[in-house]
From TrEMBL:
Gene3D superfamilies to which the protein is assigned, alphabetical: 3.30.450.40, Winged helix-like DNA-binding domain superfamily/Winged helix DNA-binding domain
Organism: Metabacillus sediminilitoris
Record's protein name: IclR family transcriptional regulator
One Pfam family per UniProt: IclR_C
Domain of life: Bacteria
Record has Transcription regulation as a keyword: yes
Length: 255
């Protein structure tokens, strides 16, 4: 890969961005050898570039098959660029209120082509490790993942959902699919320790005026303190707050 030399630019940065551009336009993740063949960058230099870009979160390496794809930081930047930042700014005060009221962590997740990711987190408990950060992709078994699986149009979620279900056991898959009816009926989902031990969550959907899902608000805390009951005070509080947020985006929940 040739890069025009320009004393007013940083050539190594140009090379790094050209690697990101290359991976971004591919239909599938690329292996090291494929990137090397397409760029003609020496193996030693390419290793350094890929290692740096992966460390920064701009690329992500699949440890199982060694392929590279865009990382969580690129998703975070993309969300800001396409306007999700405005949605996030409107939701953030509610995350703060929920966290202060419950003493748990509150997060907001949005949909991307690779599945749901965390767009913002607010925590009044700095000692709680929820096992995720802004930009983290969430699995279908998480309470947020269940919300997107149920309320997003099937054409958006089919590829992601098929991929997620494929790695589950028959028991896990059956439980998850049976749970979807209750989630659709009650507008709330629960997950017991989906990411890290001893940490559980509950989530509710956020809709806009077109009744389209724009995100999910999730409360995360220690398992013994997080209810898995629809009638619990915490569940009812989160449902009330999510209804307030949806109203701000013009949504009117059917009576």
């Amino acid at each position: 890969m040739e890069n025009a030399k320009n004393n007013t630019m940083i050539q190594s940065l140009q090379v790094g961005m050209s690697i990101i551009d290359l991976i971004a336009i591919q239909e599938n993740p690329l292996k090291f050898t494929e990137i090397q063949e397409l760029t003609s960058i020496t193996k030693s230099n390419l290793y350094k570039y890929l290692n740096t870009l992966t460390h920064l979160g701009l690329l992500e390496r699949d440890k199982k098959n060694g392929t590279y794809s865009l990382g969580s930081k690129m998703i975070e930047y993309g969300m800001a660029a396409i306007g999700n930042q405005d949605i996030i700014s409107k939701v953030t005060p509610y995350l703060q209120e929920i966290s202060l009221h419950t003493s748990f962590s509150a997060l907001f997740a949005v949909w991307t082509n690779d599945g749901p990711v965390i767009a913002n987190i607010w925590s009044s408990n700095n000692g709680l490790n929820i096992g995720a950060n802004i930009g983290t992709r969430l699995p279908i078994q998480s309470s947020s993942g269940k919300i997107f699986s149920v309320f997003n149009p099937p054409n958006l979620t089919k590829e992601w959902k098929d991929k997620e279900l494929a790695v589950l056991t028959d028991k896990e898959r059956t439980y998850l699919l049976n749970d979807e009816g209750l989630i659709e009926e009650n507008f709330i989902s629960f997950a017991k320790e989906p990411l890290v031990p001893y940490v559980s969550s509950l989530s509710t959907p956020i809709f806009n005026y077109n009744k389209e899902l724009i995100g999910a608000i999730t409360v995360v805390g220690f398992s013994q303190l997080i209810s898995q009951d629809l009638n619990d005070d915490l569940s009812q509080y989160l449902l009330s707050m999510s209804n307030q947020v949806s109203k701000r985006f013009g949504y009117k929940r059917p009576v």
